[in-house]
Amino acid sequence: MANGDSISIEVQEAKAAAKLEKVPMLAHQKPEKKGWKKGIAITDFVLRLGAIAAALGAATTMGTSDETLPFFTQFFQFEASYDDLPALTFFVIAMAIVGGYLVLSLPFSVVTIVRPHAVGPRLLLLLLDTVALTLTTSCGASAAAIVYLAHNGNPSANWMAVCQQFGDFCQGVSGAVVSSFVAVVIFLCLIVLSACALRRT
Amino acid sequence: MANGDSISIEVQEAKAAAKLEKVPMLAHQKPEKKGWKKGIAITDFVLRLGAIAAALGAATTMGTSDETLPFFTQFFQFEASYDDLPALTFFVIAMAIVGGYLVLSLPFSVVTIVRPHAVGPRLLLLLLDTVALTLTTSCGASAAAIVYLAHNGNPSANWMAVCQQFGDFCQGVSGAVVSSFVAVVIFLCLIVLSACALRRT
Asked: What family classification does the UniProt entry report for this protein (chains A, B) (predicted)?
C-alpha cells in the first residue's frame, strides 16, 4: 500500500516535470509570433487615425468651400458652392460616411491589438476596408474629374473653365480631392497589413 | 544473432503498420479541407474570366464609340470621340491595363487550384487585386462624372448637355461605364474570396 502510493506520487512528479519542461518552450515560442502580429495591429490603429484625419478633413474642406463674387447684377449674385455640382455633393456625403466608418472601426482595431491571433475581427476589418476603399476612390475620382474640368474646361464639348472667376473655391475643392487620395493610399496600406496578418504563420 | 534479426524485422513491421494506420487517417482528413479551398480557387478562376470580359468589353466599347454628325459647315465637321475628353482617355487606358493584368493573373489562379494550401500566390493575387480594384473604380467613377455631365449639363457652371446632339456616342460611353462597374463588383467578390481562403483553417 505505502509502496504503491510512493510510485503514483513519483509518476505525478514526473508528469509535472514534463509539463514544466514544456511550458517554457511554448512561452519562449509564442511571444515572438505575438509581437510580430501585435506590431501590425498597432500600425493598423495608427494608420486608421491618419485616415480619419484625411477623410474628415476632406469632407469639411469640401463642405465649407464656397465663394461669393464681390460684384452682382440686379437679379443675380454670382456664388459657387459644393452643392452646385452633384459630384462634389456625393464627395461630401461619401467622405463623411467613410470618416464615420473609420471611427466605428477603431474598437475592432483595439481588439486585434489585445488578441493578435483573433481571425474574426481582422477578416471583418479587411472586408469593410475594401468596401470603404471603393467608396473613397469613387468619390475622389469623380470629384477630380469635375475639378479638372473646372480648371481647364473642354473646348470640344464647349465647357468653359470656371476657375478664373472662382479661384478660392477651386483651391479648396482641389485640396479636398488631394486629401481623399491620401485616404485611399492609407486604405491600401491597411488592406496590405491585414492580408499579411491573416496569413497562416 | 538470428534472434536479434527477427526482432529488428518485427520492429520494422510494427513501424510500417503504424505508418499504414496513419496514412489513411491523414488522407481522410485532408480532402475535406482541400476540397473547400479548391472550390474557392475554381470560383476565383471563373470570376476572373468574367472580369476579363467586363474590363476588355468596357475598353473596346469606349474606344470604338465615336459619332460624326451628318451636317457640317465650311470649316468644321462636328465629331465626338473618346479622346476629346481626358477622363474617357484615362478610362480606355486604365481598363486596358486592368484587362492585361487579369489575363496575366490567370496562371497564378491556376496555381491556387492545383495547390489550394499555397499562401504565396493567394496573397500576391489579393494585393494586386486590391490595386486593380482601385484603378478600375477611379477610372469608372471619373468617366461616370463626365458622362453625367454630358447627359444633364450643369446650369450653375454654364456647362451645356451635349447628349442631345451626340446620342449614340453617349449611349456607348454609358454602356462602357456600366461594364466597368460590373468589373468593380467582381473584384470585390475576388477579394472577399481570397481573404476567406487566406484565413487559418
From this structure: Belongs to the Casparian strip membrane proteins (CASP) family.
Do residue A150 and residue B157 have CB atoms under 8 angstroms apart? Answer: yes
Indicate the residue of A84, A123, A142 with minimum beta-carbon distance to B142: A142
- CB–CB contact A145 B145 (8 Å): yes
Residues of B in contact with A138 (CB under 8 A): 137-138, 140-141
Q: How far is A11 from chain B (nearest CA, A)?
A: 27
| Cβ pairs A/B, distance under 8 A | 114
Do A195 and B195 make contact, defined as CB atoms within 8 angstroms?
A: yes
Per-position DSSP letters for B14-42, written without gaps between them: HHHHHHHHHHHHHHHHHHHHHHHHHHHHH
Reading phi first (left if > 0) and then psi (alpha if -120 to 50, else beta), residue B189 is in alpha
Q: How many CA atoms lie within 13 A of B168 on its CB side?
A: 10
Q: Across the strands, what pairs with B77?
A: B72
Interchain pair A154, B85: CB under 8 A: yes
**Contact residues on chain B for A190, CB-CB shorter than 8 A:** none
High-pLDDT (> 90) share of chain A, %: 48
Question: Could you give the CA distance from residue A9 to residue A18 in angstroms, rounded to a whole number?
Answer: 14
pLDDT in tens, A81-134: 888 888 999 999 999 999 999 999 999 999 999 988 888 889 999 999 999 999
B154/A84 CB distance under 8 A: yes
ipTM over 0.85: no
Cell 481573404 identifies what position? B195
Q: What pTM was computed for the model? A: 0.79
